[in-house]
Amino acid sequence: MVNVHELARRLSALGTDDFTDDDVVDLATAADVRISADLEIDAATAQRLLDQISPALPVTGAQLVASQWPPPVSSRPTAPSVTFSSPGAVDGPSDQPARRSSGSPRHGRRPGSRRPGSPRRP
Asked: Spans of biased composition, class Basic residues (predicted)?
């Protein structure tokens, strides 16, 4: 757990904005959380405060109040961002190569298929 001053310092270290103790109190007010300068903030409260920040910061409430600060950085690469533009479609990074299909496109009917309404032959 951390106090308001330490939480403001950690938030400032994460984002482009400098957070003050008053900013943390404002976040708490927006989240309908009662805090004071000497109150220790736990992970659940920190998460509620983080949920008020836009754009979202790359940590969880638990990481924010953990005794180890800054949080450990994963050595695994992050996955590329994905944007959903319509149901079922996925747009990935623009530098991905276009998909190519092998063979020539097929035109006409498939062998053995019948048109609707055509009589069956015995």
From this structure: 106-122
Please tell me the predicted confidence (pLDDT) of residue 71. 75
> Domains of the chain: which residue ranges?
2-65
Model's pTM, two decimal places? 0.55
Q: How much of the chain, in percent, has pLDDT values that exceed 70?
A: 59
Cα–Cα separations (whole angstroms), residue 58 to 6, 55, 61, 63, 73: 18, 9, 10, 10, 11
The residue ranges of DSSP E strands in the chain, in sequence order, are 83-86, 89-91
Distance CA(11)–CA(7), nearest Å, equals 6
Confidence of residue 49 (pLDDT cuts 50, 70, 90): very high
